[in-house]
Amino acid sequence: MGRKLNYALRQILSSESRLDIRNIKYLPRWAILGIDISIIVVADLLTGVALRDLTSNFYEFLSVYERMFLIVGVNIFFFFVFRTYSGLIRHSSYVDALRIMLACFSTFVTLILVNYLTYFLIGEKIYLVAGLIFYFLVSFSLLFLFRLSVKQLYEYFKATQKNQNLEKAVVFGADENAISIAGALEIEHPKRFDIRGFITNDNTRRNIRILGKPVIYNGLKVSAEAKALGASALILSENTLTAEEKFSLVEECLENDIKVFNAPIVSNYEDEKSVSNKVKSLQIEDLLDREPILLNKENKRQQLTGKTILVTGGAGSIGSEIVRQVAEYKPKLLIILDQAETPMHNLQLEVQAKFPDLNFNCVICDVGNRKRLELLFQKRTVDVIYHAAAYKHVPLMESNPHEAVFVNILGTKNLADLAVEYMVGHFVMISTDKAVNPTNVMGASKRAAEMYVQSLYHSAGGIESGKTKFITTRFGNVLGSNGSVVPLFRKQIEKGGPVTITHPDIIRYFMTIPEACQLVLEAGAMGKGGEIFIFDMGEPVKIMDLAIKMIKLAGFIPNKQIGIKITGLRPGEKLYEELLSDKSKTLPTHHKKIMIAVDTPGNYEEINFSIEKIINSASKLKSHKVVGNLKMLVPEFKSKNSTFEKLDNLSSISNPEKKII
After folding, report:
1. Nearest to residue 360, comparing CAs of 318, 391, 315, 317?
2. Fold matches, 167-282 and 297-398+428-435+460-601
3. Strand pairing of 507-508 and 541-542?
């Protein structure tokens, strides 16, 4: 304890701190208790001096020192009872004042009782009642003033601090959460924000002051109101805003050079870290969030609880989130399969920590290795498969089409065939919007996989009705997934730019990883077999607008502080993605975010023959032959910005053996 006090004194007296009381992290509790004892001794002495001027009649049953020992002893006892010494002095509040009041009042009541008890027992009193009343008032006042003085001194040093650039900010909102955030930001050290006031949509709180700061009703533009208060930043604490309202508000602020920060709900704070550390720059994910998905857990509980679940590609961004969500339903066994060793190891550690009672098994395996997969099915009875394993990077697969075939097509065929052979109940395949009217090898390979599992289910010879239900889910880009544009832009901004965009007009659909995986589980539970479920992805996002907003959210000026560079479309990339082909229609389901694509399944024998042909050409590593055969199976596959565009010539495709090398 002595070390802590010595350290605090050195901090105050050091030349660098310049007698700055803010540099004291905290005083040990015994030091605060010692100061409080000194204060009540002074209060007792002041009481004695005052009474001597008022009267000369004192009770002589106890000496002056014995009376002081008794009154101080009782007071110390109630200090321990109410723990008046346990708070941080500079952060004293009405709660601390109440504790002091209770300790002093309890001392007063106890001494009154002792006083009259001795009177009834021996006919003499110890204290003058007027003296106890005076002591109660003086001791409470001095204890309270000590804390108030320290608090004000601390505030004074904060107000006079130099060489510190504070972000002048207004808080959007005037509810309890907003007040708590503003109050915490005002008293903490080192200070990051200078809170200038509040802006609220609540008409009942207009023209008042909170924490000494003005509250302005949001009648004009928020940016204009913030600037009127001298602020250059806005802290969002209002949790009642819809995604559209938040997006509009942030867009207006960014257009007018007002930085935007996001503050979480104070009750969600799990540790004692600085509040400033929790007030973070708004992320693009905060603006793209949509209304929460409301799902019925009962149908998924029936499908997953107590069952053996296999998740392929389980260490990837989508697969790992499916693992987390499936684990919540307490399966009998969760098998996580992936060929990526390090991500699998990291996921294993995470699952062990988050789900200590979960029975799970991590399997390192390539889905293209049928023998390894078959060994897995021989050892365990699998009830549900979530097939998320896939190669998904468009330019890489354009350069390595045979690898796209081995994983996306052969891997899917291996799993689907084994699912039929070992009578798996549900097979849920994760597909992509790039499979619709594909312009690249990756999208075409996923479309070929879709066609295979659909035809397998609908074929009379390929599967007995009602055995394995094959279900396909199709959606677009997910925020934060491996290789997603959002983390790429974030890294480029952190490095000072430039942010690279392939084309100024390119657009994409986005949804969050948890949202996509929730819908995958829901579609898997509602599927009857053979369907292609597509998800409502919301409004498409122009990637140029996305980049500009991310740069502004990071506090930079686009094309000045952070440049934007157009690099040109990559091989196989198109300006916009589609969730449906021109020939397909949709049917609604019980969930408004999930629809069924009405698509005519192909003939199983013909598709299987073509798939075998594609796999055979891939095994020979003949890229053009692989792509040519893919185009024959998927006639809507038209390459863009790719060396394979010449294969779209009908004469080349009609006789690929002569033209394809």
Report:
1. 315
2. yes
3. antiparallel
Question: For residue range 476-488, what is the model confidence (pLDDT) as tens digits?
Answer: 776 656 556 777 8
Residues 78/177, Cβ–Cβ less than 8 Å: no
Query: Which superfamily does 167-282 belong to?
Result: NAD(P)-binding Rossmann-like Domain (3.40.50.720)
Using DSSP, state whether 249 is helix, strand or coil: helix
As a whole number of angstroms, the distance between CA 126 and CA 118 comes to: 7
Q: What are 30-47's pLDDT values in tens digits?
A: 777 788 888 888 888 888
How many other CB atoms are there within 10 angstroms of residue 382's CB atom? 23
Q: At what angle are helices 317-327 and 341-354 packed, to 10 degrees?
A: 20
With a cut of 60, say whether residue 150 has pLDDT above it: yes
Read off φ and ψ for residue 97, nearest 5 degrees: -65, -40
Q: Which amino acid is at 484?
A: S
For Cα atoms 628, 633, 639, give the angle at the middle one, nearest 5 degrees: 50
Measured distance CA(359)–CA(334) in Å, rounded: 6
* CA–CA distance, 107 with 569 (Å, rounded to integer): 80
pLDDT in tens, 554-574: 777 788 888 888 888 777 676
Report the Cα 483 to chain-centroid distance in Å. 19
Other CB atoms within 10 Å distance of the CB of residue 194: 17
In what helix (H) or strand (E) does residue 458 lie, and over which residues does it extend? helix 441-458
Residue showing tokens 């002081």: 68
- pLDDT given for residue 13 in this prediction: 44
Torsion of CA 590, 592, 594, 598, to 10 degrees: 80
Q: What is the structure's pLDDT at 261?
A: 81
Confirm whether 434 is a catalytic residue.
yes
pTM strictly above 0.85 = no
For residue range 76-106, list pLDDT tens digits in order: 888 888 877 776 655 566 677 788 888 888 8
Give the phi and the psi of residue 479 in degrees, each rounded to 5.
Answer: -65, 130
Task: Show me where the domains of the chain are located.
Answer: 2-159, 167-282, 297-398+428-435+460-601
Q: Cα–Cα distance between 531 and 256 in angstroms, integer?
A: 48
Which candidate, 290, 289, 282, places its Cα nearest to that of 551?
282
Tokens of 483: 């290789």
Q: What is the pLDDT of residues 310-335, one digit of tens each?
A: 999 999 989 999 999 999 999 999 99
Are the C-beta atoms of residues 216 and 197 closer than 8 Å to each other? yes
Task: Indicate the angle between helix axes 441-458 and 604-619, nearest 10 degrees.
Answer: 140
What confidence tier does 230 reach under pLDDT thresholds 50, 70, 90?
confident
Q: Catalytic: which of 246, 300, 307, 434?
A: 434
Tokens found for residue 519: 């819908």
Q: How many CB atoms lie within 10 A of CB 503?
A: 16
Say which CATH topology domain 297-398+428-435+460-601 has: Rossmann fold (3.40.50)
Q: What is the dihedral sign for C-alpha 352, 354, 357, 363?
A: negative
Query: Cα torsion at 507, 508, 511, 516 (round to 10°)?
Result: 170
| Backbone φ and ψ of 234, nearest 5° | -125, 130
Give SS3 for 494.
Answer: helix
- Contact call for residues 31 and 138 (beta carbons, < 8 A): no
